[in-house]
Amino acid sequence: MAVLCGAGLGTSLRRCGAGGSGRSPWKPLLVLLSPPAFSTGCPRCAKDRRLRQKRAISERQLTRYFVDQRKVRVVGGQGGDGGQSFHSEPRKVFGGPDGGNGGDGGHVIFKADQQMKSLASVFRFYQGFHGERGGSKNCYGANGAHLYVKVPVGTLVKEDGEVVADLTQHGEEYIAAHGGAGGRGNRFFLSNENRAPKLFTPGEPGQERVLHLELKTTAHAGLVGFPNAGKSSLLRAISRAKPAVAAYPFTTLNPHVGIVHYQDYEQVAVADIPGLIRGAHQNRGLGMAFLKHIERCRFLLFVLDLSVPQPWSQLQDLKYELEAYEKGLSERPCVVVGNKVDLAQSRINLALLREQVAERVIAVSALTGENLEELLLHLRELYDTYVKTEHSQGQSPVKW
Q: Most-buried pick from 51, 136, 339, 342 (CB within 10 A)?
């Protein structure tokens, strides 16, 4: 007899071919309208089911999930009201006031978490938990629990345009809104003049603020260059990051961070900053929306396209844009990476580039992997210098 699989709910049944011949294959079976406590599918049908693979997200779709700015209104929890009661028991009728104080409201706390990479999961409104009302028998109300909001490492907290917190370390916390104090119970107002006070105070409201969160990518090195210079291809070649690569400008619409692993278990974070153009400091192109991500990079990798005429002019324009955005930004430790050395024209421009610039030039090919070892070794040298400098200044270097 054919068996009808009851995996679906309601009265719609589908025929399963697990059974043999015999009686009528369409004999109806009773199906419960409520969900069964266990799977009612037959074993053969269960084998045909496959887990769905996670759908790949394109670069433009990923932009919707990458949020580096968020306006948040935070309100602390309200304090609990004070209690009003009088003690009464047998043989002690006039026991006096025994109303306890109310509990304090909970704070709203921003906490930096290195697992968070975007502000997309941060809501626009948060309110702390309220304190409980004071009880009888001098029992205090419970304090409201603190509300922790996880934000990425490198988040700036601004209020009215001024920076009030800079969360640069994992686990660092900032109290965004304080909870209100609990009210006083009538036991607090007992005095020689008033032996039976009925007065109690309500809990205070929590602090209310409107804050602006701004994310600046925290990485050791930053890939800076014009569109189509090969920054994303280079990041894919030296790390496991997989940013989108295409033959049109502005392929990268949001920063990507790749981790370069070394044999001594050191990890260097390299950020792929979206391409800059002339006038970026005036908010042209992607503009200052991504220039701010370069501020947190400890050293820079200027990626130049060796196949274009006069590639050294790109370096001059990039340094000008960085210096116009923030003074001293272009003077950070850097190295010039000449990409696309596998092309014929690039070999000619490479010799001219080394004559025009004073910085060290490393010629690589992200497509073929040529000379990537020299780049990785020099990247480690820059990282070691950064670590020694932080230790000499009594600060802890950023670790991934």
A: 339
Q: Is 343 exposed, middle or buried (0-12, 13-18, 19+ CB in 10 A)?
A: middle
Q: Is the pTM of this model over 0.85?
A: no
Q: What is the mean pLDDT of residues 4-12?
A: 42
Can you tell me which residue has the tokens 């948040």? 72
Residue 351 CB-density burial (10 A; 0-12 exposed, 13-18 middle, 19+ buried): exposed
Nearest C-alpha neighbor of 243 from the set 221, 272, 275, 268: 272
Residues 6+ away with beta carbon under 8 Å from 69: 119, 212, 213, 214, 215
Question: Which one, of 193, 5, 196, lies nearest residue 84 by Cα?
Answer: 196
Q: What is the β-pairing status of strands 147-152 and 108-113?
A: parallel
Confidence band, pLDDT 50/70/90 cuts, at residue 282: very low
Tokens (6 digits) for 221: 């090195």
Nearest to 79 by CA among 49, 102, 50: 102
* DSSP per position, 295-321: TT-SEEEEEEETTSS-THHHHHHHHHH
